[in-house]
Amino acid sequence: MKLRGRNYRYVGPPELRALAHPGTEGRTILSAADALDAVGIGLRTGGFTHAVVFRRCPACGQLNIVRDGDFVCVFCDGALPPDWNVDPSPA
């Protein structure tokens, strides 16, 4: 498929493939959210699967993914804070 002067190849669920082709059989899809809306899957507000919780360890500074509510650093076993602390570093 060619869009805005670039070639694209669709990779994804087969039921969305027809929607990815402009023309009589479908329409142009500009984002994944547009494709999901087109087939009636309204996930814009609910998320796709689950939220990923990140925390920075105050002891070692490493970024962690909190799994199963276990707020413990996988690098140093330090306690992770319950509140968000992963803001971008000032430039």
Explain how this protein is built:
Helices cover 15% and strands 13% of the residues. It is an alpha+beta fold. Strands 1-2 form a two-stranded antiparallel sheet. Strands 3-4 form a two-stranded antiparallel sheet.
Helix content: 10-25%
Reading side by side through the largest sheet, how are the strands ordered? 1-2
Mean pLDDT: 74
Order of helices and strands: EEHHEE
Oligomer: single chain
Distance between the termini: 39 Å
Q: Give the structural class.
A: alpha+beta
Catalogue the unreliable spans. none
Percentage of residues in strands: 5-15%
In angstroms, what is the radius of gyration? 20 Å
The tally of helices reads 2
> What's the total count of β strands?
4
Summarize the helices and strands and which ones pair or pack.
Layout: E1 2-3, E2 6-7, H1 14-20, H2 32-38, E3 53-56, E4 63-66
Q: Short description, anyone?
A:
The protein is of the alpha+beta class and 91 residues long. Helices cover 15% and strands 13% of the residues.
Quick tags:
single chain, 91 residues, alpha+beta, two-stranded antiparallel sheet, two-stranded antiparallel ribbon, 2 helices, 4 strands, elongated
